[in-house]
Every structure is written in C-alpha cells, then in structure tokens.
C-alpha cells in the first residue's frame, strides 16, 4: 500500500509510476515556457498536471476566435482575454499549489525582463527565429543547454 500525504493525492497514480523521489524532483522543478499557442498551451497543461511546482509563462497575445481550433486555452468564453491570464487561471484550476510567474510580453532579443537563472528548464514554443536564438544563448549561458 502506498502511503502518501494529502498534498500528493492528486498525483498518486504518477507517484506509483515514477516513485516518490522522482515525483519530488518534478514538484521542485521550475519551468519557463515561451508561447501559449498551439504547442505551448498543451505543454503548460501537461506540466501543471504532472505537478511541476513553478511555471513561468511568456506571451503577449489575446485569445481570438481563430485560436479555438488548436489552442487549449481558446474557447468562446476566453476570446479577448490575455493568454497569460487565461493560462494562469487554468494552471491553478489544475494544480492550485503551482506557483505561476506571468510575463505579458512579446519576447524579443535583448529582453531583460526575464531572469533565466530562476528556472531549471526552458521550453520554446514561439515562432520568431531571432527570439529562439536569443533564448538558446541565454539558456546556454545559464548552464541549461
């Protein structure tokens, strides 16, 4: 019989699969996700459902009707809302204990608003090539690559 505290009941099946020690590594992880569109919204959802303890989300867009066919956060109820706000609400509805850092910005090379050293992992789900290169450089500089 698996003994666990009430804080981890939501993740009991995951803990059975990967073990308490590995789950604690996930729970203590800090992940930064750039872009909350078709790839990013599903990525963040999976991170929240896996029990990641801190998720940083970066996007400056609003949900539009054209997003509904491919983005998890896009519904008729969320049209016109900031993607970071909708995503943060979704994260907390899945995992209320998850800490969320929201960055309502269009990430471009030279952006110094985000401290990469605060994160263990970075996920790039954006389209802008120059920003992708900058993210790689900063991640590499922080020892993440």
Question: Key terms for this structure?
Answer:
145 residues, alpha/beta, 4-stranded parallel sheet
Question: Could you characterize the architecture of this molecule?
Answer:
With 145 residues, this protein is α/β, with parallel strands linked by helices. The protein contains 5 helices and 4 strands. The chain has a 4-stranded parallel beta sheet with strand order 3-2-1-4, sandwiched between helices. The longest helix is centred in the C-terminal third of the chain and has 13 residues, at 129-141. The chain is globular and about 40 Å long. The termini are far apart.
Computed CA radius of gyration, to the nearest angstrom: 16 Å
Helix content: 25-40%
Distance separating the two termini? 39 Å
The average pLDDT score comes to 93
* Count of DSSP H/I helices: 5
Fold blueprint:
Elements: H1 12-18, H2 20-27, E1 30-34, H3 40-50, E2 54-58, H4 83-94, E3 99-103, E4 121-124, H5 129-141
Parallel strand pairs: 1-2, 1-4, 2-3
Task: Describe what is shown at a glance.
With 145 residues, this protein is α/β, with parallel strands linked by helices.
């Amino acid at each position: 019989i698996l003994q666990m505290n009430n804080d981890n009941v939501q993740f009991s099946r995951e803990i059975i699969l990967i073990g308490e020690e590995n789950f604690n590594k996930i729970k203590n992880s800090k992940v930064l996700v750039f872009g909350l569109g078709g790839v990013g919204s599903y990525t963040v959802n999976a991170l929240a459902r896996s029990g990641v303890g801190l998720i940083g989300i970066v996007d400056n867009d609003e949900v539009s009707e054209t997003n509904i066919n491919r983005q998890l956060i896009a519904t008729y109820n969320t049209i016109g809302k900031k993607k970071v706000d909708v995503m943060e609400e979704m994260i907390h509805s899945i995992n209320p204990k998850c800490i969320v850092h929201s960055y309502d910005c269009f990430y471009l090379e030279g952006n110094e608003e985000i401290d990469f050293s605060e994160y263990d992992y970075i996920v790039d789900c954006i389209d802008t090539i120059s920003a992708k290169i900058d993210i790689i450089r900063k991640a590499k500089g922080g020892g993440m690559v």
